[in-house]
């Protein structure tokens, strides 16, 4: 089974992955369910957390990992995508883990392979493993993941993380709201937009901060990073738990002095990423 996005998952499936991730973390009882499986990591965008944790997750489950380096591949000689995937598929890998700037990339790849495809982030579409590791972190801190009050602050319109969270919000009946500069907010969607920062962070279980995606030129949609920090940055601890998918632009979305506050769950999210990605591999392999 593929993991192309939470759009394609139902609540039972998400709960099953969460349960397995919690089991892996609490028992350290790894089933080696990927024993001798071959996982091909295909990252066409930079990554620290996602790429490394998918690799560690695969190794913990007994798989072997091949890191496809597109800069040294025959794509550079002009080979097209379909031929590239068809040829890699002929080597019979068990998984492709893909990240690409194109929305829909993982789905596209899945049309040309018998391997399970896992979406590690595709353009502005989805980042399902990030949302699931966020969910695990929420579960650890609140236990009940139904009816949570969650505000996402930042570059919503370009965020694949926000989109995956919108599917979780529907599944678990969250009171989800957005806040950010108007140039970062989607129009005509049925999600509450907070009026100011005070309202955005008040009476929330979790506040998720999103990164200004400087590599995607998101900075051109705001006057300056300082201006963003002034109106949308978190500059002191708040009542809610703070999450951020990373990498954090320090002193833009979140001030360095707050980064170390006990309610900031960023390194917990990263830790849980390994267990959630193990659970995703396990789920795809056994379905
Ligand atoms: N959250 C996230 O996707 O981080 P990386 O880009 O470092 O993988």
Shape: globular
Overall mean pLDDT: 96
Biggest sheet, open or closed, and with what strands and sense? 5 strands, parallel
Give the number of DSSP strands. Answer: 9
Strand order of the largest sheet: 7-6-5-8-9
Strand content: 5-15%
Show the helix and strand layout.
Layout: H1 11-27, E1 38-43, H2 49-60, E2 64-68, H3 81-89, E3 95-100, H4 105-110, E4 116-122, H5 128-142, E5 149-153, H6 160-171, E6 175-179, E7 192-193, H7 197-201, E8 206-209, H8 225-232, E9 241-243, H9 256-259, H10 266-286
Parallel strand pairs: 1-2, 1-3, 3-4, 5-6, 5-8, 6-7, 8-9
Helix pairs in contact: 1-5, 1-10, 2-10, 5-6, 5-10
Residues 47-51, 121, 130, 245-247 line the site of phosphoric acid mono(formamide)ester.
Provide structural commentary.
The chain has 287 residues and is of the alpha/beta class. It is 38% helix and 15% strand. It has helices at residues 11-27, 49-60, 81-89, 105-110, 128-142, 160-171, 197-201, 225-232, 256-259, 266-286, and strands spanning 38-43, 64-68, 95-100, 116-122, 149-153, 175-179, 192-193, 206-209, 241-243. The strands form two sheets. It has a five-stranded parallel beta sheet with strand order 7-6-5-8-9. The protein has a four-stranded parallel beta sheet with strand order 2-1-3-4. Helix 1 packs across helix 10 (266-286) and helix 5 (128-142) packs across helix 6 (160-171). The longest helix has 21 residues, at 266-286. The chain is globular. The mean pLDDT is 96. Phosphoric acid mono(formamide)ester binds next to helix 2.
